[in-house]
Automatic annotation (TrEMBL):
<feature type="domain" description="Activator of Hsp90 ATPase homologue 1/2-like C-terminal">
    <location>
        <begin position="18"/>
        <end position="137"/>
    </location>
</feature>
<dbReference type="Pfam" id="PF08327">
    <property type="entry name" value="AHSA1"/>
</dbReference>
<dbReference type="InterPro" id="IPR023393">
    <property type="entry name" value="START-like_dom_sf"/>
</dbReference>
<protein>
    <submittedName>
        <fullName>Polyketide cyclase</fullName>
    </submittedName>
</protein>
<dbReference type="InterPro" id="IPR013538">
    <property type="entry name" value="ASHA1/2-like_C"/>
</dbReference>
<comment type="similarity">
    <text>Belongs to the AHA1 family.</text>
</comment>
Length: 159
């Protein structure tokens, strides 16, 4: 049996840009669409709900902003009703190096197989998001990592 403390996704990466740049890229859908989703219905604003769309997969989700601390923390709930999880993005400035961005997702429920699948999918997804964000902010490159994860030519195949 998987314990509650094990039902957590954690990943992190150093982004060699100031916290204000990283924070802005995460709350502004015009920037976030360069490395994660296709488009969002608006900027993240505390206690508001926005919609994020991944047109390449025909998927969207509601994102309820729980807390915003400029240049420090973003917290939101997302997912299907009854299967919502909470995601926290923590930004830690490192003098002369940039911002260490940590992502934690918790509140994952279901059978052990469902929990393991969600942890696997979220971990892989967030790693791609971090890599895409790093490439975008540090080099202005759109890697299209999320879109290329499941190309249509292999859709329906087991991953």
């Amino acid at each position: 049996m998987i314990t509650d403390t094990q039902k957590t996704v954690e990943t992190a990466l150093l982004i060699r840009k100031p916290a204000r740049d990283v924070y802005e890229a995460l709350i502004d859908p015009d920037q976030t669409s360069k490395f994660w989703f296709s488009h969002g219905s608006g900027r993240l604003d505390e206690h508001q709900t926005v919609t994020w769309n991944w047109d390449m997969y025909g998927v969207s989700t509601g994102v309820k902003v729980l807390a915003l601390v400029p240049e420090e923390k973003i917290s939101f709930a997302w997912g299907n009703e009854g299967m919502e999880t909470t995601v926290e993005w923590t930004l830690t400035p490192i003098d002369g190096k940039g911002t260490f961005l940590q992502i934690t997702e918790h509140g994952i429920n279901g059978t052990d197989d469902e929990v393991l699948g969600k942890i696997k999918d979220s971990t892989g997804g967030f790693v791609l998001v971090l890599a895409g964000l790093k490439a975008w902010l540090e080099h202005g490159i759109r890697l299209n990592l999320v879109g290329d994860r499941f190309p249509p030519e292999i859709a329906g195949q087991k991953h």
